[in-house]
Automatic annotation (TrEMBL):
Sorted UniProt keywords: Hydrolase, Iron, Metal-binding
Lineage: Bacteria, Pseudomonadati, Pseudomonadota, Betaproteobacteria, Burkholderiales
GO molecular function: cyclic-nucleotide phosphodiesterase activity; metal ion binding
Domain of life where this protein originates: Bacteria
Protein name as it appears in the record: Phosphodiesterase
Family: Belongs to the cyclic nucleotide phosphodiesterase class-III family.
Listed Gene3D superfamilies: GpdQ, beta-strand dimerisation domain, GpdQ, catalytic alpha/beta sandwich domain
Sequence ranges assigned to domain Calcineurin-like phosphoesterase in this UniProt record: 7-204
Pfam family, one: Metallophos
Length: 271
């Protein structure tokens, strides 16, 4: 029997936004460094860190160098997928240890499969160069079908940038369509032991259910999108206390997800 697997999920740091971003009110690099410091101090220590995309604002090599530098204090395994603000090829080239593209991955797709403490984690690349929406194309879906088949009967966790369903925040949903989501749902239904899907992109914590499995969208470690469910509401950012997602997985109970504030609110108070 494996001990619990603890996964720290960090998403959407957007390194490279520059000092004028959001009126100069958020330093994304500093926010990412704080989140990393928070993860480094967690007890128990996470077994694994997953980055669910938009590591950078522009997908430039110098921005990935800053991502790598910011992650240097962490000594646990780190794995990442690209988001719509990333450049998949540049990211894989700059961060090969964090994005170990499978030998049988379709050309141009940063997808891979790792296994830790009995949980099979499958990274999917939903990025489309130059576009905000996501795509799981036929070659990647075929790769996923083969990968799930190879994991038949074993617990699998998927992680990717784009959530597979709309959130009701219309302005985000307009740039969040995941082409191929119906085919993804069919594959998940065929594979009974998918434990969940971890995503980013929405810049706030959202829970969904897709093809019978939980979807967790993690909040950004930097800036959030305002929670506005009114039809036609415009897109606006909101500065909120930054959080990471902390997933505790056990073979018996599956995934249990917590949100962990990066900044403390004073010492713990005994009852
Ligand atoms: Fe983002």
């Amino acid at each position: 029997m494996h001990s619990p697997l603890l996964i720290a999920q960090l998403t959407d740091p957007h390194l490279g936004t520059g000092p004028a971003f959001l009126g100069g009110r958020i330093d994304t690099e500093r926010a990412f460094q704080r989140a990393v410091t928070h993860v480094a101090a967690l007890q128990p220590r996470p077994d694994l860190v997953l980055l669910t995309g938009d590591m950078t604002e522009h997908g430039r090599p110098d921005e990935y160098a800053r991502v790598a530098a910011a992650l240097a204090p962490l000594d646990m395994p780190i794995y990442a997928v690209p988001g719509n603000h990333d450049d998949s090829h540049t990211a894989c080239t700059a961060l090969p240890a964090y994005m170990p593209v499978a030998q049988d991955a379709p050309a141009g797709r940063c997808c891979y499969h790792i296994q830790l403490k009995g949980l099979h984690c499958v990274a999917l690349d939903t990025s489309v160069s130059g576009h905000a929406h996501g795509v799981l194309d036929t070659p990647q879906l075929a790769w996923l079908a083969n990968t799930l088949q190879a994991c038949s009967g074993l617990p699998v966790l998927l992680f990717m940038h784009h959530p597979p369903l709309p959130s009701g925040i219309e302005a985000m949903d307009a740039c969040s369509l995941l082409v191929g989501s119906e085919q993804l749902a069919a594959l998940i239904r065929q594979h009974a032991r998918v434990q969940g899907i971890l995503c980013g992109h929405l810049h706030r914590a959202v829970q969904m259910q897709f093809a019978g499995v939980p979807v967790h969208v993690a909040p950004s470690v930097a800036h959030q999108i305002a929670l506005d469910l009114q039809p036609g509401a415009s897109l606006h950012a909101q500065l909120e206390p930054p959080q990471i997602s902390l997933h505790r997985w056990t073979p018996l109970y599956g995934l249990c997800t917590h949100l962990s504030y990066v900044e403390p609110y004073g010492p713990a108070i005994a009852f």
